Recover the amino acids of this structure.
């Protein structure tokens, strides 16, 4: 075995037996080389091997830090923390009694004649007149309702985003996004060959002057925005900001993709950006958060001038909705299932927000009573990657480091997103308590 691998094995053993813990800083490579009486080049290979194994993370200008040991067979993590691992990365809310609600429509679909029609083939991007009417009723907000003829259907919200970006931005094109954005957009852009351009934020989201300056410096093909319950910051833009952005889109001849996936949780939110600039905004949404991700549809509300391009993108990407899912979604909208689930989840967010205040109220946390997530700016000396590793190892809780949301090199903040939706409230209560205790310890 090569020398650098033998040394890496010894470091891994130190991590496994607790002599090195998540968050500990390794010495600079030159110091490591002197201590182990090896060449600097060998030390570089050791650190590279440790990173490859997922044991350490390097932060430019800060050093190299221990993440966590690879999981051992058996319930070692549960034994160490006294609890089963809790995933606060995934964020899918489930309302009490939701399955029973959804089952009503599925029972009707079980009739052989109805089922045969639903599964006869993939649905068209335009769905059916009944499906478009149902979608328009789901998406309607105070002060705004989409024209049913403007609605197209995707398999889920992610596919709706992919189709929207594909229709608007050519390979190699520039897409303006919030400097902290939904991680999926980063992944979709990478697959489509789209270059992301970060836009500076304030308490209401993207700053209009930042968008204008960026576009004038080097034109953008489009912009992706989350004006209501921004993920991960929970910010919501007011009507004044939306009007300002709408005017700016018209003046710059830009089109925006407005993601309203979480907006249903805010009963008194301003009308969407699409209401202020209907010819300049392509709105995307889905049933995944309102109901469940396993049987869902994605929605696109598309200006007439872009409808053909968006429909082509849905078809060419194989992103159209399935017939069964579209039939179920149409029934759920018409029989009150969606409305009941939305009401239950709005009440649930308030209860979970109270848990955040109880455990993290003394910390720098950005959230909303309507949000199913919070953004936690960590206390010194914690860093996001090392805290996330320590949370998994010591507290049995998975959280998302800020780097997952950051766009551009060197912009990752020492913050984490904590998803609040998925675990039962009692489990969430315990997990937040353990995270708070961990943050109060020594990194």
């Amino acid at each position: 075995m090569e020398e650098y691998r033998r040394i890496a094995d010894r470091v891994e053993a130190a991590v496994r037996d607790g002599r090195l813990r998540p968050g500990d800083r390794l010495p600079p490579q030159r110091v490591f080389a002197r201590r182990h009486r090896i060449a600097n080049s060998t030390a570089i290979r050791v650190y590279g091997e440790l990173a490859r194994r997922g044991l350490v993370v390097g932060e430019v200008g800060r050093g190299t830090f221990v993440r966590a040991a690879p999981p051992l067979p058996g319930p070692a993590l549960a034994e160490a923390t006294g609890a089963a691992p809790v995933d606060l990365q995934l964020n899918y809310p489930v309302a009490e009694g939701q399955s029973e609600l959804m089952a009503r429509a599925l029972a009707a679909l079980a009739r052989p004649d109805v089922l045969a029609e639903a599964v006869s083939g993939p649905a068209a991007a335009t769905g059916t007149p009944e499906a478009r009417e149902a979608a328009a009723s789901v998406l309607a907000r105070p002060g705004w309702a989409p024209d049913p003829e403007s609605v197209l259907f995707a398999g889920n919200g992610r596919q709706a985003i992919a189709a929207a970006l594909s229709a608007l931005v050519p390979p190699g094109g520039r897409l303006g996004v919030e400097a902290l954005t939904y991680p999926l957009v980063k992944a979709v852009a990478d697959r489509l060959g789209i270059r992301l351009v970060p836009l500076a934020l304030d308490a209401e989201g993207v700053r209009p002057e930042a968008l204008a300056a960026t576009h004038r410096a080097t034109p953008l093909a489009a912009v992706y925005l989350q004006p209501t319950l921004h993920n991960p910051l929970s910010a919501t833009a007011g009507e004044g900001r939306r009007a300002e952005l709408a005017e700016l889109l018209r003046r710059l001849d830009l089109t925006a993709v407005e993601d309203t996936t979480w907006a249903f949780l805010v009963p008194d939110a301003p009308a969407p950006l699409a209401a202020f600039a209907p010819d300049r905004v392509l709105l995307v949404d889905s049933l995944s958060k309102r109901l469940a991700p396993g049987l869902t549809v994605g929605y696109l509300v598309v200006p007439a001038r872009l409808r053909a391009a968006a429909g082509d993108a849905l078809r060419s990407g194989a992103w159209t909705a399935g017939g069964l899912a579209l039939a179920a979604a149409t029934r759920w909208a018409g029989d009150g299932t969606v409305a009941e689930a939305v009401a239950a989840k709005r009440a649930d967010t308030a209860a979970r927000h109270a848990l955040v205040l109880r455990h993290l109220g003394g910390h720098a946390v950005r959230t909303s009573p309507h949000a199913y997530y919070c953004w936690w700016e960590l206390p010194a000396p914690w860093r996001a990657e090392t805290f996330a590793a320590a949370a998994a190892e010591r507290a049995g809780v998975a959280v998302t480091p800020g780097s997952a949301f950051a766009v551009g090199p060197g912009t990752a903040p020492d913050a984490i997103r904590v998803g609040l939706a998925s675990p039962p409230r009692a489990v969430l209560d315990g997990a937040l308590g353990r995270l708070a205790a961990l943050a109060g310890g020594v990194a």
Notes: DSSP finds 17 helices and 18 strands in the chain.
